[in-house]
């Protein structure tokens, strides 16, 4: 059985009995795959689709947060929790007997990188040393916590209070009386924070 016929120009290259192959000899239409016009259309479609997808994604994120609890609080009527290691306003502590803890070793003054602490001391009749002057310039303080880490008797601490804004510079120059008053005011919170963090001290 003959499977091939004579090739004629413009006709089919192969004709089989039964017909299996049908390969055209000549093409009547030609297409330019990467023309400039097609490139521009492709880029426009890609940009439009990407922008549309980003808009849909942004709307999805917005809707997901719309039904969740807010991450903010209504400050100052609501206040968030503070870490026991929070470093706020400075305070000088006392012993339960009322005696000052500070022994005028001046380690806090020596270690302060901002040189914000000024201490003057004198010796008492019983041989112990106590401060006659303990000043902290709160405008210089960088709240690094070195002073309370260096103190051997936990006398100088940074308490939980962070709401001590003032209208004048002079109000941020703390003296010994101001620091002791802060310690008396926040002693319960300071003691509980020190106890909660005692494993790491």
Notes on the structure:
This protein is an alpha+beta fold. It has a domain at 89-198: Alpha-Beta Plaits, CATH 3.30.70. The chain is built from five helices and five strands, in the order αβαββαββαα. One of its GO terms (molecular function) is metal ion binding. Belongs to the complex I 23 kDa subunit family. InterPro entries: 4Fe4S_Fe-S-bd, 4Fe4S_Fe_S_CS, NADH_quinone_OxRdtase_chainI. Keywords: 4Fe-4S, Iron, Iron-sulfur, Metal-binding, Translocase.
Short synopsis of the structure:
The protein is α+β, with helices and mostly antiparallel strands and 201 residues long. The protein has helices at residues 36-66, 107-111, 146-150, 176-185, 187-196; strands at 90-92, 117-123, 129-137, 156-158, 173-174.
Write the layout of secondary structure elements.
Elements: H1 36-66, E1 90-92, H2 107-111, E2 117-123, E3 129-137, H3 146-150, E4 156-158, E5 173-174, H4 176-185, H5 187-196
Antiparallel strand pairs: 1-4, 2-3, 3-5
Q: What key phrases describe this protein's structure?
A:
two-stranded antiparallel sheet; iron; Alpha-Beta Plaits; iron-sulfur; elongated; 30% helix; 201 residues; three-stranded antiparallel sheet; 4 iron, 4 sulfur cluster binding; NADH_quinone_OxRdtase_chainI; alpha+beta; disordered N terminus
């Amino acid at each position: 059985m003959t499977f091939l016929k004579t090739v004629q120009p413009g006709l089919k290259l192969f004709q089989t009995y039964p017909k299996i192959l049908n390969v055209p000899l000549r093409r009547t239409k030609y297409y330019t795959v990467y023309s400039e016009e097609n490139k521009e259309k492709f880029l426009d479609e890609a940009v439009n689709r990407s922008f549309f997808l980003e808009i849909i994604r942004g709307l999805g994120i917005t809707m997901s947060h719309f039904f969740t609890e807010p991450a903010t609080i209504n400050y100052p009527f609501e206040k968030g929790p503070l870490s026991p290691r929070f470093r706020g306003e400075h305070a000088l502590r006392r012993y339960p007997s009322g005696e000052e803890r500070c022994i005028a070793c001046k380690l806090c003054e020596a270690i302060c990188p901002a040189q914000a602490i000024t201490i003057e001391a004198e010796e008492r009749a019983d041989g112990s040393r106590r401060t006659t002057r303990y000043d902290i310039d709160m405008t210089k303080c960088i709240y690094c916590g070195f002073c309370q880490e260096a103190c051997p008797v936990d006398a100088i601490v940074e308490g939980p209070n962070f709401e001590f804004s003032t209208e004048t510079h002079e109000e941020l120059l703390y003296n010994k009386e101001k620091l002791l008053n802060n310690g008396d005011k926040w002693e319960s919170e300071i003691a509980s924070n020190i106890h909660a963090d005692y494993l790491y001290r």
